[in-house]
Amino acid sequence: MEAKVHQGERDFEQISKTIRKEKERVKDFKTIIIKYLESLVQTQQQLIKYWDAFLPEAKAIS
After folding, report:
1. How far apart are CA 3 and CA 28, in angstroms?
2. Which residues are within 8 A (CB) of 52 and not within 5 positions of it... i.e. 6 or more apart?
3. What is the pLDDT of residue 32?
4. Residue 42: its pLDDT value, please?
5. What are the angstrom distances between the C-alpha of 1 and each of 8, 9, 30?
6. SS (H, E, C) 27-55
7. Which sign does the torsion angle of CA 44, 46, 52, 53 carry?
8. Which residue, among 10, 51, 29, has the nearest Cα to 2 in the 3D structure?
9. What is residue 39's predicted lDDT score, i.e. its pLDDT?
10. What does the angle CA 23 – CA 25 – CA 29 come to, to the nearest 5 degrees?
11. Where is the Sorting nexin/Vps5-like C-terminal domain (predicted)?
12. Running along the chain, 62 residues long, what does each successive block of 10 average in pLDDT?
């Protein structure tokens, strides 16, 4: 019986360790995704500025 208790404790510790590791991975992934999306937004904002600068030129041609 005591062996089962010790095995249960080891299993619990291993599962807890795995869960903490996975939570950290999810946190890191979330951080990376947020940075990526912010980068996409900045790129789109820059494209809007370029388009706004180009649009009068394009209208003048047509």
Report:
1. 38
2. none
3. 99
4. 99
5. 11, 13, 43
6. HHHHHHHHHHHHHHHHHHHHHHHHHHHHH
7. negative
8. 10
9. 99
10. 115
11. 2-56
12. 94 98 99 99 98 88 79
**Residue 17, CB half-sphere, CA atoms under 13 Å: how many?**
6
* Nearest-angstrom CA–CA distance, 23 and 6: 26
If you search the block for the tokens 């500025």, which residue do you land on?
A: 49
Q: Which residue has the tokens 């599962």?
A: 15
Read off the tokens for 44.
């789109």
Amino acid present at 28: D
